[in-house]
Every structure is written in C-alpha cells, then in structure tokens.
Amino acid sequence: MIDLITGSLLMGWDTLLGYLSEHVVTCLIPAFFIAGAIAALVKKEAILKYFSPDAKKSVAYGLASVSGTVLAVCSCTILPMFAGLFKRGSGIGPATTFLYAGPAINILAIVYTAKVLGFDLGLARAVFAIILAIVIGLIMAFLFRSHDRETKKKMAEMPVSPAPEVERPKWIIPLFFVFLVGILIAGTAQADWMIKFPIIYLFTLGAAVLLIYFFDRDEVTDWGLETWDLTKKIFPILIVGTFVLGMLAFFLPPETFQPFFGTNSIESTMLASFIGTILYMPTLLEVPVIGTTFGYTSGIMAGGPALSLLLSGPSVSLPSLLVISRIMGWKKTGVYALLVIVFSGLAGFAYGLIIG
C-alpha cells in the first residue's frame, strides 16, 4: 500500500515538474500578461463591438473560431485570456467559442498532426474544430440567454472609458498586443533557444518602448494588478489539478483503454471524447500520445476515436474545467464540458463513416 501511495505521489510530482518546465516560462507567463492587458487596456467599447451579446454573429463567432491559428496554446494557457474577455463583457457564446477554438486549431498542432498522423486526419481536425467551436458557442448563447441579458445590463451601467488627455495613435495598442502575442508564439515555437531568444528579446524591447512612451503610469499599474489578480485565481488550481491528474494516471494508465478504440463505432468515439476531456494533454503532446500510446500509427486505434480525442483533449481537461468553473460557474462549465464531449464524439463518428 505504501509503495502504491509513494508511486502515485512520484507520478504526480513528475507530471507537475514536466508541466512547470514546459509551460510556465514559455506559455503561462506571456498568456497571463496578455490577459491582464486585455482586462486593463482594451476598452469596453472594443469588446462590445466584436464579442458582445449584441455583436454581429458572423463577426463575433468568425473571429473567435479562428483565434487559435495565431495562438499556439493549450487549454491551460487560453484560460487567462478567456477570463479577461469574460470579465470585460464578452457574450458567453463568442467567449466559449474562443475558449474551445484557441487550443483546438493552433497552426502548430494542425501541421504537426498532418505530418505525424496523416494529412487527412490533420485536415479533419482543422475543419471540425472550427465547426464545433461555432456550434458549441451558439448553443451556449442560446441556453444562457439570461447571462447575456445581465451582461448587457451591467455593461450599459458601466461608465464609458474616459479618453486620455493626450490621445495616442490608434495603432499603438494593437501593436502592443502584436508584441505580446509574438513573445508567446516565439516562446512556444519548436525551435532552438539560440533562435528564439533574440526574437523574444526584440518583441520584449518593442513592448517596453511602447509602455515607456505611449502609456501612462496608471495604465501600466492597472495592467500589473489585473495580471496578478488573474494569476492568483487560476495558477494554484492548475498546479493542484495537474498534480492530482498525475497521481490518477499511476492507477489508471491510458493503455487501459487501448482495446476500446479499435473501431469507428459511436461507443468508441464517445469514450475517446470523454477520456480526452478529463486527461491533461499539453498542445502538440496529443499527437504522439494518439500515435504511440493509443496505437493509431500502428493500426490499433481507428481514425474516428483518434479525431474525437484530438478535438476534445487539447481544448478541455480536468484542471482546466476546475478553473473555468471559477470563471463562469459550475452549471455553465458542466454544460460546456458535455457539449465538448458529445460533439467531439459525433465528429469522430462522422469522420469514421467518411473514411470507411
């Protein structure tokens, strides 16, 4: 018994160390700063224009669904950005579309999937991820119409952000976000640090120059406070959740489910979708896990379950669901998780029918 407990603790510790070494510096820290900037620097009017409950659906859902193509992030990293949007009055539909699409269709993961698991599966992942992101967002908006009504009421009561005494050029804030996102993308790129470091340094230098010459002290302070507020709410839950998930993996390794993924049946795709929803898989890691651990490249795992796992795994995990519940409550989180499971499973089943 003692050996089992010790082994599970070591597994949890190893999982946590791997998470910290792979994600904190290159992913989470830049993401928290981006989220803090969204909350502090993006005016209410800008959020309402593109993501509010009254925004044009084609614009709101279109932008949210393709967000992942420029953000090479996993579900844990998209959370602070989602929290920033949610806090600033985004409609629940576009916000959840952004939440799902961010890690589901990042360009690195799509290219890597096509290269390792095959072009057909990579293309199917990209197409179904965009479709599912929009569908899930629209359903969330329909089911929680009362939330959007309350959001519109609250935002209407909020004072309009005062114009700065010295108006800066309109391109400054977009360029500032370009620098921040550039730091995130460069940090997560699969490249040597001798290549990445100069790029990160230039982006950081550019952001610093803009802060010094175009932002006042109160704006910079607000950015720091918002970043810290999001960090202290989200980061501890991610740490605990990842550690616990590592312990569970000791008692229930993924290999246990391999015999259930050999066909394209609805049972197999739904099971794969469910497992993907509770497992923590950093972006890009899902590709070797599916290819080797679950045996897709060796023919053990069928294409349908593989796609279901690709669609659910990177977007949702047990630790991320715990964090999401803190942001929008357990009821909305439960519905969101259920939609991800069902639609990812159905997409995998449909893909299985297409490929025969």
UniProtKB/TrEMBL annotation:
Its main location: membrane. Pfam families: ArsP_1. It comes from the Archaea. It comes from Methanochimaera problematica. Keywords: Cell membrane, Membrane, Transmembrane, Transmembrane helix. It is a multi-pass membrane protein. This is Permease. Signal peptide: none annotated.
